[in-house]
Design brief:
- α10 runs antiparallel to α11.
- It is globular and about 65 Å long.
- The chain has a five-stranded antiparallel beta sheet.
- By secondary structure, it is of the alpha+beta class.
- It folds into two domains: about 160 residues, Uridine Diphospho-n-acetylenolpyruvylglucosamine Reductase, domain 3; about 100 residues, Enolase-like, domain 1 (2-Layer Sandwich), CATH 3.30.390.50.
- The longest helix is centred in the C-terminal third of the chain and has 17 residues.
- β4 and β5 form a beta hairpin.
- Bound molecules: flavin-adenine dinucleotide.
- The site of flavin-adenine dinucleotide has 30 residues, from β2, α2, α5, α6 and β10.
- Pfam families: CO_deh_flav_C, FAD_binding_5.
């Protein structure tokens, strides 16, 4: 038998986290699957639960001139209603599961679950997002790529919680998102692809490509992006093979029940070419 703690303030939650060995429970949409039991029986949690979904401190969205701060317990569906959430993140969220799951699942849960197929992750990597990690005595911010160590693994210590996600503002005038799944809705991705570019007078000023489900965590390749920065978009056809070669070495998907490594790699490389060569 496990207990559930329902703190009424964030401070109280941090105290419980510091003193007890608990599982942080936000929307529970990943946890209920991870700890599932035989049909009609209660899930088999092996530790007490710390419910955070009602903590108002974790449900706020704040915008300044330079960044957007999203509370970790914001529901995915709530983010869709906010004017300050970048469209590319909304696009990814609209592709997550079904409305019912989006009404329960949180952005913090999607990040902390650290699935290679987590759909907000490629967008957050492409946007250079940071995360704020808090414990009873400390708070720190780190880049999302440093936060996620691999499937289901993050740098969070037992007494730490993901408090918020910080998205620096940036301008992009070529934007592309594609989730490739077995069907249009309610599918876990075989490949998810995000590309953002700022192109001025045909010159690529900024370019970010982030690909999910093709490695243990999201793939973003500095060498690939650097090969394109300051290049003329009209010369891309001469560069495309070189760029695809760079990405090909870094994309290391696996065969699983959803797809094959070969398919995933081919699709990812073709999406790179599509983004760079097609006028969107
Ligand atoms: C039917 C179904 C379909 C799905 N489809 C998709 C899909 O298409 N795309 C996709 O990306 N995901 C999908 N998911 C997964 C899931 O819905 C999302 O990952 C969701 O965002 C998880 O959020 P949650 O609040 O429910 O997380 P929870 O289940 O509450 O938690 C997930 C993990 O994160 C930890 N955690 C949560 N919040 C915090 C925090 N603030 N600080 C520290 N640790 C924390 C928990 O301890 C747990 O380890 C699906 C799930 C189901 C059941």
């Amino acid at each position: 038998m496990v207990n559930g703690y329902s703190p009424s303030t964030f401070k109280e939650a941090l105290k419980i986290l510091n003193e007890k060995d608990v599982i942080i429970y936000a929307g529970g949409t990943d946890l209920m699957v991870r700890y599932k039991n035989i049909s009609s029986l209660l899930p088999k949690f092996d530790k007490d639960l710390l419910y955070i979904e009602n903590l108002k401190e974790l449900k706020e969205i704040n915008e300044s001139s330079s960044e957007i701060r999203i509370g970790a317990a914001c529901k995915l569906s709530y983010l869709l209603q906010s004017d300050c959430i970048p469209q590319i993140l909304k696009q990814a969220i609209k592709n997550i599961a079904s409305p019912a799951i989006r009404n329960m699942g949180t952005i913090g849960g999607n990040i902390c679950n650290a699935s290679p197929a987590g759909d907000t992750l490629p967008v957050l990597y492409a946007l250079d997002a940071k995360v704020k990690i808090t414990s009873i005595n400390n708070s720190k911010e780190t880049e999302i790529k440093e936060f996620i160590l691999g499937p289901k693994k993050t740098i969070l210590e037992n007494n730490e919680i993901l408090e918020s996600i910080i998205i620096p503002k940036a301008d992009f005038n070529k934007i592309y998102y594609q989730k490739v799944g077995a069907r249009k809705a309610s599918a876990i991705s075989k490949v998810s692809f995000v590309a953002l570019a700022e192109i001025e007078k045909e010159e690529i000023k900024d370019l970010r490509i982030a690909i999910g489900s093709v490695g243990p965590s999201v793939v973003r390749v500095k060498e690939g992006e650097d090969a394109l920065i300051e290049k003329n978009i009209k010369d891309i056809n001469n560069l495309i093979n070189h760029v695809q070669d760079i990405y090909s070495k870094k994309i290391t998907p696996i065969d699983d029940q959803r797809s094959t490594a070969n398919y995933r790699k081919n699709v990812a490389l073709r999406l790179i070419k599509y983004f760079l060569t097609v006028e969107l």
